[in-house]
Design a protein that fits this description.
With 716 residues, the chain is an all-beta fold. The chain is built from 3 helices and 36 strands.
Length: 716
C-alpha cells in the first residue's frame, strides 16, 4: 500500500492570506497528537480495512489556530502517514477574503492476494498469459494453475484543491475553486466479449479536474448569483485487452472501459424577501455532458468471431440537462407558515444513433436514445395549534415522461413512444412537544402512481407476456408510509427514545415482476447519567423487509393469463419472496475514575442480518416442483447473512493541563455467508459448456481483528 508523508505545496497558499497573524499580538492555539497502533488480523485483511488502513504503524493528528484582530490561519491534519490521511488549511482577513486548500486520501480495499493466470500486464490494459496456446475444450491442468499471478484489488483516491472567496466589494461577492482527483489501482470487471466468462483485474488510472466560479450580490432583501462548473474526466485506458485462452484460435479480446468525458454547468440563483414574512427563491441551470468512443465491428461469441456493419465507428455521446424551480415560503400569521413550489427537470439525449447489422443476417438493431422529463409541484402548510401541537399537511404532484424507442427490425428506426407516470403524494406530519418530560411526532404519507403501460404495450407489440409485465420503476403502485417517534425524559438523569417506521408498497397492476414490498423498522435508545462520574447508553434497532416477485418461465397461450395457467415442465411460475431481518444493539459506559485526570469508557456493538430467498412453484397449490424437490427444499437460506461484533475499551489520562495520554483496545469479529461466496474456490475450467474463471474478488470476507492503540496529545 502506498503512503504519502509530504504536505502538498497547495496547502501552504493560505499562509499568505493573514499577514496580521504574523504580528506580535496574535493568539496561537492547537494540539499535536502522535499515535501508534498494532493490528493483528486473522482472515480477510482487506475487508477489515475496506475503507481505511489495516496496517500497524505510526500516525497522528494536529491542529493549529493563529488569529489576530484582522486575520486568521487554521490548519488541521488527520491520519497522518495513513492511507486515509487528510489536510486542510484556511486563512483570510475578516470582511475581505478567505483562501482555503485541502488534500485528502480515500482508500477502498476490495481483496488482497487475488489470483489470475494472466502473469503479464496486471496493472496495465494488456493482459497476457503463457496459457495462450491452450485450445478451447482442453482442460487446464493443476500445473498450469501454479502460474497464477497474485495481486491486490484496491483503489486509492487522492483529492486536492484550493478555493478563494472575495468580499472586498460588499454586498458583491465572488467564489472560485479548483480541484483534482486521481484514482489509481485495480478493481474487478467481468468480461463479455470473450468465449468464456472471466473476472479480470481492471486498471484504474482516472484523473478528474473541476473548476467552479460564482459571483453574486447579497444584501437584504435581495440575493442573486451566477455560477459555472466545468469537469474533465480522463481515463488512461479506453479498453482492457486480454488473451482469450479458450478461443478456437489464439486471439485478443477486450472489455470497454469508461471513456473520457467533459461536463459543464451554468446556473442562476435568486431570492427576494416579500411582505408577510415571505420569500421567493428562483433557480435555473443547464448542463452538458459529452463523451466520445470508438466502436468495434467484431464480437467474440463462444470462441467464434462475428462481424457487423456499423453506421458509424465513432460514437459521439451528449446529454443536455435543464433544471429550474420556484419556491415561495411565507409565514403570514404567527400560527401559520407554508410553502408552494414548482420544479422541472429535463434531459435531452443528443447522442449518435448507431445502427448495427450483422453480416449474413437480415435483422438490424441500434442503440436506444433515452431521456426524460420530470415535472413536480406541491404545497405544504404548518399549523401551530393549542396544546403545543403542530400539524403539517402536504401534497405533491409528480409527472415523469420517459420516451422509449422500440427495438427496430428494419433499416429505419421505430418512432418514440412515451411512458408516463403520474404520482400523487399526500400526507400529514404531527408534532407534539407535550411537556418538558415528553415529546412525540407521527406522520403518514401516501403515494398513488398511475402509468400508461397498457397503451404502451399495445404499441409495443403482441408478445404473449407483455400485457402482464411491469418494470417496478415505472409500474403503477400504491405506497403507504407510517412514522412514529417519541422521547421521554422522566428525570433529569434519564432519557428514553422510540421510533417506528412502516412502508407498504403494492404494485397493483403487475402480474409478472415485482409485486409487493414491505418493511418495518423499530428503534429504541436510552441514556442514564446518575451522577457526574458515570453515564450509560444503550440502543436497539430491528428491521424486517420483504420483496415479492413473480417470474414466468416458458410460454403460455396468447389469451391466457400466465398467473392462472396450470404449470408444466416447460412453462411454470416461480414466486420469490426475499426476506431480510436485521438486529442491531449496543451498550456503552463512560466513567470519570479520577476527576479531571482519568476517564474510562467501553462500547460494545452487535450487528446481525439474516436473509432468505423463499421460492414457491406455482401458480396454484396443486402445482408441485419436479420430482425430488419441494417448495421448502428449493428455498435459499444462505442469502446475504452476516454478523459483526465490535468492542472498544479506552482510557484517557491527563498528565497535565497540556498533556493527555490515551490508550485502548479494539476487537472486531465479522462473519458473512452467501451462497454466491460460501466455500469459495479458485476454479480454472476449460469445459466448452462451463468454461470460466474467478479471481477472488469479495471472496472469503470473514475476519477477526485485535487492535491496540496509544496516543499522546500535547495542547498549546
Amino acid at each position: 500500500m502506498k503512503k504519502y508523508n509530504y504536505l502538498p505545496a497547495v496547502l501552504l497558499l493560505p499562509l499568505l492570506c493573514a499577514p496580521g497573524a504574523q504580528a506580535a499580538d496574535n493568539e496561537v492555539s492547537g494540539f499535536v497528537m502522535p499515535s501508534v497502533k498494532s493490528v493483528n488480523i486473522s482472515g480477510n485483511k482487506a475487508k477489515y480495512g475496506e475503507y481505511g488502513d489495516p496496517d500497524s504503524g505510526f500516525s497522528g493528528s494536529a491542529e493549529v489556530k493563529s488569529e489576530t484582530d484582522t486575520g486568521y490561519v487554521t490548519f488541521n491534519a488527520d491520519d497522518i502517514a495513513q492511507d486515509t490521511q487528510n489536510y486542510t488549511i484556511e486563512g483570510g482577513q475578516y470582511g475581505k477574503f478567505r483562501l482555503d486548500a485541502f488534500y485528502n486520501e480515500i482508500q477502498h480495499n476490495n481483496t488482497f492476494d487475488a489470483k489470475t493466470f494472466y502473469t503479464g500486464g496486471v496493472g496495465t490494459n494488456q493482459l497476457t498469459s503463457p496459457l495462450s496456446n491452450v485450445r478451447y475444450g482442453q482442460a487446464i491442468t493443476p500445473a498450469m494453475v501454479t502460474l497464477g499471478n497474485t495481486f491486490d484489488y484496491e483503489v486509492s483516491r487522492d483529492q486536492y484543491g484550493a478555493g478563494l472567496r472575495l468580499d472586498l466589494m460588499k454586498p458583491f461577492f465572488a467564489n472560485f475553486s479548483a480541484s483534482r482527483e486521481d484514482r489509481q489501482g485495480l478493481k474487478p470487471i467481468g468480461s463479455a466479449n470473450s468465449s468464456f466468462p472471466a473476472e479480470l483485474p481492471e486498471p484504474v488510472d482516472y484523473k478528474t479536474n473541476i473548476i467552479q466560479a460564482e459571483v453574486g450580490y447579497g444584501k437584504d432583501p435581495y440575493f442573486a448569483s451566477v455560477g459555472y462548473t466545468h469537469s474533465n474526466f480522463d481515463n488512461a485506458y479506453d479498453a482492457l485487452y486480454f488473451t482469450d485462452i479458450y478461443a478456437t484460435t489464439n486471439q485478443t479480446s477486450f472489455v470497454s472501459l469508461p471513456p473520457d468525458n467533459d461536463y459543464s454547468k451554468f446556473d442562476l440563483k435568486g431570492r427576494v424577501k416579500l411582505p408577510l414574512k415571505s420569500a421567493l427563491a428562483l433557480a435555473y441551470s443547464e448542463s452538458k455532458a459529452e463523451a466520445e468512443a470508438t466502436l468495434t465491428n467484431t464480437l467474440n461469441a463462444g470462441g467464434a468471431v462475428r462481424v457487423f456493419n456499423l453506421s458509424d465507428n465513432l460514437f459521439d455521446g451528449r446529454v443536455d440537462t435543464t433544471n429550474y424551480s420556484a419556491i415561495l415560503t411565507s409565514s403570514p400569521l404567527d400560527f401559520l407558515d407554508g410553502k408552494i413550489f414548482y420544479k422541472n427537470y429535463e434531459t435531452k439525449n443528443k447522442s449518435d444513433r448507431i445502427s448495427i447489422e450483422e453480416i449474413g443476417r437480415v435483422e438490424q438493431l441500434g442503440n436506444d436514445i433515452f431521456d426524460y422529463t420530470k415535472e413536480s409541484y406541491g404545497i405544504e402548510a404548518g399549523l401551530k395549534l393549542p396544546g403545543r401541537v403542530t400539524l403539517t399537511p402536504f401534497y405533491t404532484k409528480v409527472e415523469t415522461t420517459r420516451p422509449f424507442t422500440l427495438a427496430p427490425n428494419t433499416l429505419a428506426f421505430n418512432p418514440y413512444y412515451d411512458v408516463t407516470t403520474d404520482d400523487n403524494i399526500y400526507g400529514i406530519n404531527a408534532k407534539w412537544k407535550g411537556t418538558d418530560l415528553v415529546s412525540a411526532n407521527v406522520g403518514y404519507e401516501r403515494m398513488d402512481r398511475d402509468d400508461n403501460m397498457d397503451s404502451f404495450v399495445m404499441k409495443h407489440g403482441t408478445a404473449v407476456l407483455n400485457p402482464y409485465t411491469r418494470e417496478s420503476y415505472i409500474a403503477s403502485q400504491k405506497k403507504d408510509t407510517y412514522k412514529l417517534g417519541f422521547d421521554v425524559f422522566p428525570t433529569d438523569t434519564l432519557s428514553l427514545g422510540f421510533t417506528l417506521k412502516h412502508k407498504d408498497i403494492d404494485y397493483d397492476e403487475t402480474q409478472i415482476g415485482l409485486t409487493e414490498e414491505r418493511s418495518t423498522t423499530y428503534g429504541a435508545s436510552a441514556s442514564f447519567t446518575p451522577n457526574d462520574t458515570v453515564s450509560f447508553s444503550a440502543y436497539v434497532d430491528y428491521e424486517t423487509a420483504t420483496r415479492e416477485q413473480l417470474v414466468r418461465l416458458g410460454a403460455t397461450a396468447p389469451t391466457a393469463s400466465p398467473v392462472d395457467t396450470i404449470p408444466t415442465d416447460a412453462a411454470y411460475n416461480v414466486t420469490t419472496t426475499l426476506e431480510d431481518k436485521s438486529f442491531d444493539w449496543g451498550v456503552g459506559v463512560n466513567v470519570v475514575a479520577i476527576p479531571k485526570t482519568l476517564i474510562l469508557s467501553a462500547q460494545f456493538d452487535h450487528t446481525k442480518s439474516d436473509g432468505l430467498a423463499d421460492y414457491t412453484y406455482g401458480p396454484t397449490s396443486a402445482a408441485v416442483p419436479p420430482a425430488g424437490w419441494t417448495n421448502e427444499t428449493i428455498d435459499f437460506s444462505s442469502w446475504d447473512d452476516y454478523k459483526k461484533d465490535a468492542l472498544q475499551l479506552k482510557g484517557t489520562y491527563s498528565l497535565s493541563a497540556q498533556i493527555d495520554l490515551t490508550g485502548g483496545y479494539a476487537y472486531e469479529k465479522y462473519r458473512y455467508s452467501d451462497g454466491h461466496y460460501d466455500n469459495y474456490r479458485y476454479v480454472y475450467n476449460a469445459s466448452a459448456t462451463a468454461g470460466g474463471y474467478l479471481s477472488g474478488a469479495n471472496a472469503n470476507p470473514d475476519y477477526t481483528a485485535n487492535v491496540v492503540f496509544l496516543a499522546a496529545k500535547y495542547k498549546f
